[in-house]
Specification:
Layout lengths: L1 H24 L3 H20 L10 H24 L2 H10 L1 H12 L6 H19 L6 H26 L5 H9 L4 H10 L1 H5 L1 H4 L1 H24 L5 H8 L2 H11 L7 H18 L1
Helix pairs in contact: 1-12, 1-14, 2-8, 2-9, 2-12, 3-7, 3-8, 4-6, 4-7, 4-14, 5-7, 5-13, 6-13, 6-15, 8-12
Length: about 280
């Protein structure tokens, strides 16, 4: 099951790295996140109108996950203001698989075998190594990235439990949870006013189009993860998802012109080897 599911989650990892690069590549990350969230909210609303509702037992988890996602988005924007993609993204993503594994053991009574445990450790260790090699990390920047990682772990465990209570409705569960993303444009308007959201539509159409595309990619990426969390171990799925850091390094190098050292490439190999362990 994990091998088949793992391949799909790796594709989700590529999607996830792509939308994070879209967010990071835009000058105003708060503005970009607001428009990404509009795309996500619109898709979620349309899906809700066409699919059955998830089971009642899953609703507390939908609400809790939606709230955590709001904090995650705000934290992610703050993190990208303080660090470049090759630093902020790996710290945030690398700190979450071990936390997810611990949370799944405590709250979902999941056990994980030695090989898969090794894979999770290799992925987390490699990711953190990617972030820290040859870079000065400010206390504020590290705290922002680690806070983002903690929110990732929290919503992953919440969704892992919640989707299993949705009576086989991962699409509906995902859509209802993503309704919370309407909060981001509301926060943006509350802070900067409606003209700040709508005036750039004519002046910066490419930036808005990029943000909308990023939102669509984002909902697909995490929708796949929620589908996978129905049956596979949360820690393993989280770790596979975080191999997106390798894709982020490639995207940062190819499109954002960020430097990548030989030691960082070696850390990417460690992450890839950890992914192989999870697939065995």
């Amino acid at each position: 099951m994990l091998s088949y599911t793992g391949g799909i989650v790796l594709f989700a990892a590529l999607l996830h790295a792509s939308w994070n690069a879209m967010l990071h590549g835009n000058r105003d990350r708060f503005f970009s996140m607001a428009w990404m969230s509009i795309a996500i909210g619109l898709v979620a609303t349309l899906v809700i109108l066409s699919v059955p509702s998830p089971a009642r037992a899953s609703w507390p988890y939908i609400a809790a996950s939606g709230l955590v996602h709001v904090f995650y988005n705000v934290s992610l924007v703050r993190s990208y203001r303080r660090n470049d993609l090759a630093l902020a993204y790996p710290i945030a993503r690398g700190s979450s698989p071990l936390l997810v594994t611990l949370g799944a053991a405590l709250f979902a009574h999941e056990a994980i075998g030695p090989l898969h445990g090794l894979g999770i450790v290799m992925i987390s260790g490699g990711i953190i190594a990617i972030a820290l090699q040859g870079r000065h990390v400010s206390r504020a920047g590290a705290l922002a990235a680690l806070t983002t990682g903690a929110t990732i772990a929290l919503y992953t465990v919440i969704d892992g439990i919640g989707v299993r209570m949705s009576d086989g409705q991962p699409l509906s569960y995902t859509a209802w949870m993503f309704l919370s993303y309407w909060t981001m444009p509301a926060l943006f308007v509350a802070r900067r006013g409606p003209p700040a959201l709508w005036t750039p539509v004519r002046a910066e159409p490419l930036s808005i189009a990029s943000s909308l595309a990023g939102g669509l990619v984002s909902i697909g990426a995490y929708g796949i993860v929620i589908w996978a969390l129905q049956a596979a171990a949360m820690g393993a799925i989280s770790a596979l998802r975080e191999t997106s850091v390798v894709f982020a390094v490639l995207i940062g190098r190819m499109f954002l012109r960020e430097a990548v050292s030989g030691s960082r490439w070696l850390a990417c190999v460690v992450v890839a080897a950890g992914a192989v362990c999870l697939g065995l």
